[in-house]
Amino acid sequence: MFKKLFKQSKVEKIYAPVNGEVVKLEEVPDPVFSQKMMGEGIAINPSKEEIVSPVNGKVVQIPDSRHAIGLKTDNGTEVLIHVGLETVALGGKGFTLNVSEGDKVRVGQPLLNVDLSYISENASSVITPVVITNSNDIDKKITLSEEKEAKAGETVLVTIN
């Protein structure tokens, strides 16, 4: 009984999945993301080709096109990393997976390698939204980082408490 009474709410942090410039979701040149149709979040204009896990949790979805990875944290937060814009049309070219659906992952663990040159030549953008797809269902405060540059696995992009 006392545990529940004095239990402090857990603060959850979502770290950068890739090195690069942090961009507000509203500035992503795609209305699905900029209008937050998929949920609250932030984006990165990547400078490195390795995408790492921004959370501790489980890989719950990888489309055949390998352009995105859906994760679910140990606390139930659903996080989507969507590499580039209009990248589903690439049919998986330019993406090399390091994980499979069902894998448990830790912050900083490599998930995916991307060929940024190929993506920038064949898709509309390399900008990478990081979205909390169940943000409308979370009864917690979501705070977005004011950082301008992100370091994969180290820079906190989103705090939930």
TrEMBL record:
Residues 30-134 form the PTS EIIA type-1 domain. It is found in: Cytoplasm. Keywords: Kinase, Phosphotransferase system, Sugar transport, Transferase, Transport. PROSITE patterns: PTS_EIIA_TYPE_1 (PS51093), PTS_EIIA_TYPE_1_HIS (PS00371). The keyword Transferase applies. NCBIfam families: PTBA. This is PTS glucose transporter subunit IIA. It comes from Oceanobacillus caeni.
